[in-house]
Amino acid sequence: MRRTLSHAGRTGLILCLMAGAAAAAGQPDPLPVVTILVDNAKVIRLPEKTSTVIVGNPIIAEVTPQKNGVLVLTGKSFGSTNLIALDNAGAMIAETTIRVEASRDSTITVQRGLERESLSCTPNCQPSVQLGDSANFFGATSGQADARRKLATSGGGAVPAADH
Question: For this UniProt entry, which residues form the secretion signal (predicted)?
């Protein structure tokens, strides 16, 4: 008795063989991923003998090298980029994907038509400037924060006590 594969069986077998051939052809493994929240920092350790660190898009993530192969990674903007470590000869010794995401734990977004505002609720809700907020809200809130910061660093308008 002779057995034959159905059309679906032949298609499945061909797909399995193609997937196996692609794996055998040396398809690169996916890059490891480091996920960080925007406006947050994470400490990562570089491979030994790293002499140069490259960030694909420094608008998304920023790196600050420290001593002993330690690097501080800071999320600057939403998105994905890569980080490459090179040795003294310029050879790549590591590459990873950096994914910068928004914090979802304590941020509430208020949408008023086309105008978007963000509130940080930790636990009381206060205005919080976030990427994607409307220009009016962003400008007003960041302007107030800057004015407050200037008052705090200039002595807050306090008058020095008179000498008696």
Answer: 1-24
